[in-house]
Design a protein that fits this description.
40% helix; globular; 2 domains; Rossmann fold; alpha/beta
């Protein structure tokens, strides 16, 4: 039966549907001041449950806070909205999350915890973009550091904002070669791409810079499965090592530190991730001066990063420990402003070779492999003092700057043969 009320409703709905794309297109045009005035969704794909949940949740909050801080000041006039997906630390779950994100029309994704998940996402993004022209996705890698991701496996749609494993080891071994007290080194790492690369580059670079140093142990253990590191610590003790190099992170590093403390292991620890959420508390006061980490920042760098750290602690009662997120939101809006667009194709092209200022000075996205070039720091665990004031995780201790390495020092060459889309 004819129903005029229903017909009117249908006509109104059709009119709204017809108008909506026009309104969206008008909103996408830059305003008179050049601002895009758009909201860009970023899919956050990382562990929000399981053994590394505390790391993932801390970093999600970091993305939310830093993206909110730049919303009013970034040159593109863009607002960012983080959309979280729990990949449980699994490459397969990462692919499921990526599919869910692209199904929702999200065209920027970020991930960093685990190079296995990173490789899966990078490959899937490349295939998605090839099959779906006009719906391309850009992958922002803030912490997955396997060098292969910007070498043999490099891909145009992937941009890494952390320094890779080889870059950090370049800085560490440059520092270690000048430490005459280092004689015997033990390597202990998680048995996956990053941990294997830490072991590989440590042996290669120490042999080149300090051939007198002996590697007296080289253990790889399952990722996120070891509940008691006492047997590993016993092996380290028996080896006569004076120093340990580890790329462990999250629970695997916190439990290693706890076992070392409990056993009274008297060695220097050279770590990649001792500054990450939860590990400083595990280190505690008994290892003062014995733990160092290499990273793109430390918590006592003056300026806006320090202000963000204080805001983060006030808001979440946690420490902001993933400073690469700050780099992301200095460069990504700048690339959007340069492109006069939030279209991932145009933004990816604009980001290649782009240099912007961040908390550590100039940072550059190297066009050859999409590996960010940046200053690296070595921090030493010590008591808070008048110079290094940030109280890490309420321990009364902090990370004091031991050395800094400008980008040209820690940079490593790339073997990437980048295949670029025809339009770029």
């Amino acid at each position: 039966m004819f129903n005029p009320t229903k017909l009117a409703a249908l006509l109104v709905g059709a009119s709204c549907m017809a108008y909506a794309p026009m309104a969206a297109a008008q909103a996408a045009k830059p305003a008179a001041d050049g601002k895009l005035n758009e909201t860009v969704k970023i899919a956050f794909i990382d562990p929000l449950s399981g053994p590394f949940a505390n790391i993932g949740q801390n970093i999600l909050k970091t993305f939310q806070l830093i993206s909110g801080r730049v919303a009013k000041t970034n040159p593109a006039g863009v607002t960012f909205e983080m959309v979280p997906f729990d990949n449980k630390g699994s490459p397969q779950e990462s692919l499921n999350s990526l599919k869910a994100a692209t199904d929702q029309g999200i065209r920027y994704v970020t991930q960093g915890n685990g190079s296995g998940a990173a490789a899966a996402i990078m490959d899937a993004v490349a295939k998605h973009n090839e099959r779906n022209p006009g719906k391309e996705v850009v992958y922002i890698n803030y912490a997955a550091v396997d060098p292969d991701l910007t070498n043999s496996k490099c891909n145009y749609w992937h941009f890494r904002f952390d320094a890779d494993t080889s870059m950090k080891m370049e800085a560490f071994t440059t520092y270690m070669k000048d430490q005459p007290n280092i004689k015997n080194v033990y390597l202990i790492n998680q048995n996956y791409a990053h941990g294997q690369q830490v072991s590989k580059y440590a042996k290669e670079m120490l042999a080149r810079k300090r051939p007198d140093i002996k590697v007296v142990g080289d253990d790889l253990h399952p990722l996120g499965q070891v509940k008691d590191f006492a047997p590993y610590v016993a092996k380290i003790k028996a080896s006569g090592a004076d120093s340990v190099i580890t790329g462990n992170w999250g629970q695997d590093l916190a439990l290693l530190m706890k076992a070392a403390k409990d056993a009274g292991l008297d060695v220097a620890f050279y770590t990649y991730y001792a500054g990450a959420a939860g590990t400083p508390t595990a280190i505690g006061p008994t290892m003062e001066g014995k733990v160092k980490f290499v990273y793109v920042a430390h918590p006592n760098i003056p300026g806006d990063l320090s202000k963000a750290e204080e805001e983060f602690k006030s808001k979440f009662n946690e420490d902001l420990s993933t400073a690469t997120v700050y780099h992301v939101f200095q460069m990504l809006p700048a690339a959007m402003a340069k492109a006069h667009s939030t279209d991932p194709v145009k933004v990816a092209h604009a980001m290649e070779g782009l240099t912007v200022k961040s908390f550590s000075g100039d940072i550059t996205m190297r066009a050859a492999d999409h590996q960010l070039q940046q200053t690296l720091y070595i921090g030493k665990w010590q008591k808070v003092d008048s110079k290094y004031k940030y109280n890490v995780e309420g321990t009364g201790f902090t990370w004091a700057q031991e050395r800094s390495f400008e980008p040209y020092v820690s940079s490593t060459p790339t073997s990437c043969q980048m295949k670029r889309p025809a339009a770029s």
